[in-house]
Specification:
Helix content is about 75%, strand content about 0%. It is built from 37 helices and no strands. The radius of gyration is 33 Å and the shape is elongated. It is an all-alpha fold.
């Protein structure tokens, strides 16, 4: 016991090995298993179990159950399954504790059917499930979004004369909230109180988290007040939820108010709470507040961990503050806190956005020198950066390193997509094929992004048959269906080749049309000379609640010009500005050319003047034509 208390695992294990060989009591070794599992790890408990086998001490069901518990706690699912099998091989019937661990192990490893089968087997052996059994199974179903099945087992509890406890209700409320059944979650809390079960801090935290995720700030605040009225003190997690919620809402004043309340409580400002606060300030680029909170942490003798520093760097990166992210990284090194994979991932991502090439390369080299495991996200970020900065050789070199490096993560499509897109846009189909061969050789699944890149390449070449073949193959990908982006790409291609029927068919397959989708449709209809169809699509947008933008108006203007409805096109131009959208170079160019062709020089010059006022650059050819028009010459070529 003394050796375990001091954390000396080696000495404690040595003492177990040197125990009197006549010591054969199973209960004694079960206590040792528990002691080593609690103090150290499942591996330490495993060594005690091996000593049991070496000494030929007969293990009991309890021995196996204890070991299973520690395997499950550390996510060693296969080991837990093997121990459960060992119970049966030893001639024992597994006990309830073993079944509880098995249900938990199978559920957390994603085997929901297996978890339910274990529960069924428990019943067949006439082992009486308790609240812990049901709560574990309900947690498994919650984690996989199976609310309907949860209701089934919730009712089954009552058939076993078991009353749902505070843990049960907390799981139910969490599950309903996660699936968006907010009112049902509220009803579960009411039902809980009516049955005489007092909600605890976990229950209230669960409901507050539901409101935070659904952005129902008023209800979040009322739940917090109800918690305090019930005499329940918020804990560190409560404050993390509140701080995170107000950060998402951008309500920094309320966030400061909650922080001040938290400061008055003892032990509620944990590192996790501070991390939430730091990320909130970093996400809006507030460097001064981040520095102040870091200073407060150090004053409170809470040393920021690698996880905290990484989270701040990530938040600054998302906020587009690469210099602030670098400053935090420097502070981290000054504090002698070792950066890990997540730190470098976040920092490289922040620097990639800023396009500071020298700094990016320096940090990338520092990561290599530190011997930190390179994740697939780092690979994808580095390759994408090199591609966007025009260093294709650097991107190819990094991809080659990623393929040959067996120590890093298993690669996925995101690592290959940046180069694949570059080759596709450049029309280098030989290189595209090379990358796709690597996909097949390495067993990498193609994502919808990968397919869209290939589809876009086919569309750029005007290869209708090739594009249709790619579209058909998307459905053969694992869990992949042609996305709205895929169908929009096909609309553009069909528009170019003049197949308006196929344009409409592709549009009908789009699940959530956007302004961009409608712009493509209107442009295609206009190109085919169907101005009425273009107008119908344009007005349909308003009926579907889709805001019309510059691109949809420009597409309509072009459609009307094609059928010689110039005055209506000009009206659409002015409607565009009344709709709080801004005309662009293409809108002005289309109208000015149309007016010049009609010898309406005054109108053309007026639009050109407006373009100049809006700092919109017209191309040189158009400027020459306008000069001719201003000299009174004929505007037509």
């Amino acid at each position: 016991i003394e050796a375990v208390k001091t954390g000396d695992q080696g000495r404690a294990l040595e003492m177990v090995v040197n125990l009197d060989s006549e010591r054969q009591e199973t209960r004694f070794y079960n206590k040792l298993l528990t002691m080593f599992g609690d103090a150290f790890s499942s591996s330490a408990a495993e060594k005690v179990y091996q000593e049991i086998l070496r000494r030929h001490v007969p293990p009991s069901v309890q021995t196996f159950s204890i070991l299973m518990k520690y395997y499950v706690a550390e996510g060693r699912w296969e080991k837990a399954e093997k121990i459960f099998s060992a119970i049966k091989k030893s001639g024992f019937d597994p006990n309830r504790s073993a079944f509880n661990s098995l249900i938990n192990a199978r559920g957390k490893s994603g085997n929901v059917d297996g978890a339910e089968k274990a529960f069924q087997e428990l019943r067949e052996l006439k082992i009486y499930p308790n609240n812990v059994t049901f709560n574990i199974l309900l947690s498994v179903l919650r984690d996989h979004g199976m609310v309907n099945k949860m209701q089934k087992y919730f009712r089954l509890m009552k058939r076993f004369d078991l009353s749902p406890d505070v843990v049960t209700y907390s799981i139910i409320i969490d599950a309903l909230g996660k699936e968006g059944y907010i009112r049902a979650a509220e009803a579960a809390l009411t039902d809980m109180k009516l049955t005489g079960i007092q909600p605890n801090v976990v229950t209230y935290n669960t409901l507050m988290n539901v409101y935070a995720e659904s952005k129902e700030w008023e209800k979040l605040e009322k739940t917090r007040e109800g918690m305090e009225n019930d005499g329940i003190r918020p804990n560190a997690f409560s404050y993390s939820i509140l701080l995170g919620a107000y950060a998402k809402a951008g309500d920094l004043d309320r966030l400061e108010e909650v922080l001040e309340t938290a400061r008055k409580g003892k032990g509620v400002l944990s590192e996790s709470t501070y991390r939430t606060l730091l990320c909130a300030f970093a996400s809006v680029g507030d460097v001064k507040r981040v520095e102040a909170v870091l200073g407060e942490m150090k004053t409170s003798r809470l040393i920021p961990s690698t996880k905290t520093y990484s989270a701040i760097i990530h938040a600054f990166g998302k906020a587009g503050c690469p210099h602030a992210a670098m400053a935090v990284f420097s502070d981290m090194k000054a504090a002698k806190t070792k950066p890990d994979t997540q730190t470098f991932d976040s920092l490289l991502h922040a620097l990639a956005r800023s396009e500071t090439s020298a700094q990016f390369s320096k940090i990338h080299e520092e990561m290599k020198d530190a011997g930190v495991r390179v994740s697939k996200y780092t690979r994808a970020t580095v390759i994408a950066f090199y591609v966007h900065s025009g260093d294709i050789t650097g991107a190819e070199r990094e991809l080659k390193t990623a393929i040959s490096d067996r120590r890093g993560d298993k690669l996925d499509a995101a690592v290959f997509n940046p180069l694949l897109q570059h080759y596709a846009c450049a029309g280098n189909l030989e290189k595209v094929d090379e990358i796709l061969e690597i996909f097949d050789r390495m067993g990498i699944d193609r994502t919808d992004r990968t397919y869209n890149i290939i589809l876009d390449a086919m569309a750029r070449r005007g290869d209708v048959k090739g594009a249709e073949k790619v579209l058909a193959s998307i459905s053969s990908g694992k869990g992949i269906r042609a996305s709205d982006v895929s169908h929009t790409t096909m609309m553009k291609l069909y528009s170019v080749v003049g197949s308006i029927r196929k344009v409409r068919k592709s549009f009908s397959r789009i699940k959530k049309p956007t302004a961009h989708t409608y712009a493509v449709l209107i442009h295609a209809l206009g190109r085919a000379g169907d101005a009425d169809g273009a107008k119908e699509a344009f007005f349909q947008m308003e009926a579907r609640g889709i805001r019309r933008n510059t691109h949809t108006y420009t597409a309509l203007v072009n459609a009307l010009i094609r059928v010689d409805e110039l005055d209506e096109a000009i009206m659409a131009f002015y409607d565009l500005q009344n709709d709080e959208a801004e005309p662009n170079e293409f809108t002005f160019t289309a109208l000015i050319i149309a007016l010049l062709k009609k010898n309406r020089f005054d109108g053309a010059r007026e639009l050109a003047s407006r373009a100049i006022e809006m700092d919109i650059q017209l191309d040189d050819d158009l400027k020459k034509r306008l000069k001719k028009a201003s000299r009174g010459e004929k505007g037509e070529e």
